[in-house]
Amino acid sequence: MAQRHMHLGAFMRPVTIHTGSWRWPGAWADANFNFPRLKTLVQRLEAAKFDAFFMADHLALLNMPIEALRRSHTVTSFDPLTLLPALAAVTERIGLIATASTTYNDAYHVARKFASLDHISGGRAGWNLVTTANPDAALNFGHDAHMAHGERYKRAKEFYDVVTGLWDSFADDAFIRDQESGIFWDPARMHVLDHQGEELSVRGPLNVARPVQGWPVIVQAGASEAGRQLGAETAEMIFAAGGRIEDSRAFYADVKGRAAALGRNPDHIKILPGALVVVGDTLGEARAKRAKLDSLVHYESAIGSLSSVLGVDARAFDPDAPLPEIPETENSKSGRERAIRLAEREGLTVRQLAQRLGGYAGNAFVGTPATIADEMQDWLESRACDGFNIMFPNVPDGLDEFCGRVVPELQARGLFRREYEGTTLREHLGLPRPENRFFA
Amino acid sequence: MAQRHMHLGAFMRPVTIHTGSWRWPGAWADANFNFPRLKTLVQRLEAAKFDAFFMADHLALLNMPIEALRRSHTVTSFDPLTLLPALAAVTERIGLIATASTTYNDAYHVARKFASLDHISGGRAGWNLVTTANPDAALNFGHDAHMAHGERYKRAKEFYDVVTGLWDSFADDAFIRDQESGIFWDPARMHVLDHQGEELSVRGPLNVARPVQGWPVIVQAGASEAGRQLGAETAEMIFAAGGRIEDSRAFYADVKGRAAALGRNPDHIKILPGALVVVGDTLGEARAKRAKLDSLVHYESAIGSLSSVLGVDARAFDPDAPLPEIPETENSKSGRERAIRLAEREGLTVRQLAQRLGGYAGNAFVGTPATIADEMQDWLESRACDGFNIMFPNVPDGLDEFCGRVVPELQARGLFRREYEGTTLREHLGLPRPENRFFA
């Protein structure tokens, strides 16, 4: 069997996810509003040959209690479709994935902005299609209430159809630019979409030439039944939740199976779980680093969240003792059991558990470059993933450690590219360029 | 009296306006979709110390007959709010003005994108607030018909109030980022707008820190009664139509008078008419250059437009003879008379008149660097303007001629800066930084 190669995205918000990371000694606390620093970060990711810089988004302040919110460096962030063009201008190869909502946008704007970004970047754009989970966003866009989950997904599918249809407004050869005859483009090579649907009415054509990649790469992250189905139908990259490797294998098989059942080539959906990576010289040093990172999370906010998860008032517990036995309650059983199992497995105190969950509770690889590469290789080779969306515990140090120590280890094992082979995000990911649905 | 200094914007679409310009020998016909070329152009404008790169926009194909449209290099263009961040990343001082519609946008998106651009560019963003004149845009945004003129202006004013209110969501000192205490920002220094108006309902706050300039510079171009009034109330730069110097003086006095009557400092509205500039070694060479440029305009399309303007079928005339006497018709008298006067003044044939109007019919300075500087100086000193939004007959040559020959002439006369003195667009234009309406 040929060696599998992994794909790496850097999941940025636009910097780190972990809520304590900005307090790390030497961390660039202002990086999310400091363009020169973001430029440095993306250039270092490109030097490490990442497939893409992947930017999350929110259309309102994060909906968390004010005590946690005022300690959060992710409370605000640049608009991704404004930041990524700027990053495109200072890089040459790395892909640039922006999150944009199908619930709180016009399809014409979304189609045009991604098409523009794809031209400006020479074919490096990706669209993370989201339906927006934060109900506060509705209030910023003239709605009284958030659209229901099912309706959001119905609109998302129609929105996708319209955006991709608008990208196909012009044949790739429509623009002739014959200075002699004076013909700039050929109207016979233009298609007017004339979409009249349940959610959207958009005439077209788009007033931008077809993107370099045909279509920017379609990315999705939905984990619900509706989200998985939309992903199987339309996604080319999926940001999976991660979690236990056996759960990830099941997710991987499920989504690829759904895609195959729909007649798609399952290799044309790349599944990249999120992974927080903490690097140390020894396993112990890496774990201590993570413990220190978690200790920077505000305890009062964290213990409140833990109380919600457990369904009991955890403020009454001794913070520096192990978690006492927790009675069953009406609360979500899976969340409570995951927390209890985590505390047992790692021997965490109440405080440590609260801060772990308050910092970043998702999938993490904590170890030496070799043990981290072992885990990543196991995930890849056992078909739990096609690569990872890496999250850094802090910047710039955590990013530099991953790029400078883990990437070379992956390269030495033949698991990751040493040089870019293509120039577009599709080429990095091994995805085909879509045919124009209206023109041969 | 102290010497007046002029301000110069480069009005780009995103390159040239004249419909024959892409056919000029050596012209960069593909510049509107070629980022490396646009990067070169903006860097040359910055080297010439322009105040701003000013980008027009359309939200649909231009509504012109297909025979003209298929010969137009301005048929499509990048989204300005996607192109300008990329240009920000490859420049350091020049202002960046993007056109964005108040009719076909969400105020929250517009506020957020301009705030992001202002941060990314270090305070160089400007917003050309338009209500969108092309009725075809409505069909791309789910509307059956274009909003009426009065309603568009009413919405524009409310939209402006919301966007500027969102920019003021955070006090300038709201972001503390105290790594020791873990407090990232101060909720007491945040204002929730909670706007409930006739056209818009937007809660806020914006999830972006206050822009570097407080507010990006507000630009407008409306010439109607409603447009002038909105400009007097809110604009800091006005793109005026130009035309005859005496008309421009009257416009200048009218708008500055309206602003003063509203209690504004008239110096805080800069009026910059558009001007196509064609440079030659002699007056004759410049005129021949312009004639050649006009000759690249498609005659069949141009004669159709001339027929509409004159209210008669101009196809019946000898194209190479002077314009015959034109009877009065029901058509707009002012348009017809302007065309007849132009043909008389410059001794144009029917063909030349048609191609002139089909190419670019607005204000133009055609001559040697010295005669062009004379005209520009006369306009400035007689208070017909505070500077100009320059249009180039072709790129790169027309741009290089202006930057390399006219700018040094203006500098030698003390009319234009030799170096940037400030770093923000407001500083280039001599505009104050707005106070935050919610925080001292």
UniProtKB/TrEMBL annotation, chains A, B:
Keywords: Flavoprotein, FMN, Monooxygenase, Oxidoreductase. Pfam families: Bac_luciferase (PF00296). FMN binds at residues 57, 99, 149, 153, 224. Belongs to the NtaA/SnaA/DszA monooxygenase family. Signal peptide: none annotated. InterPro entries: Diverse_substr_monoxygenases, Luciferase-like_dom, Luciferase-like_sf, NTA_MOA. It comes from Rhodovarius crocodyli. This is LLM class flavin-dependent oxidoreductase. GO terms for molecular function: monooxygenase activity; oxidoreductase activity, acting on paired donors, with incorporation or reduction of molecular oxygen. Residues 29-381 form the Luciferase-like domain. PANTHER family: ALKANESULFONATE MONOOXYGENASE-RELATED (PTHR30011), C2H2 FINGER DOMAIN TRANSCRIPTION FACTOR (EUROFUNG)-RELATED (PTHR30011:SF16).
